[in-house]
């Protein structure tokens, strides 16, 4: 499915085709997550539970940054 990138004020916006918005169950004004994956990006609707999990992950990665860095070697 093709989407259009456009300028919106000082920002850049992505215009989703109606079919994509319907499938994602999003409407104008909703918040979505853009997540980078090895294959590109995925767009998912905002989910408060997911937001809490992401915040916990960010906190853990920050707190254990040095240990994670060592494990990555």
UniProtKB/TrEMBL annotation:
UniProt-listed InterPro entries: Doc_partner, SpoVT-AbrB_dom, SpoVT-AbrB_sf
SMART domains the record matches: SpoVT_AbrB
Residues in SpoVT-AbrB domain copies: 6-51
Gene3D superfamilies: 2.10.260.10
GO terms assigned for molecular function: DNA binding
Protein name in UniProt: Transcriptional regulator
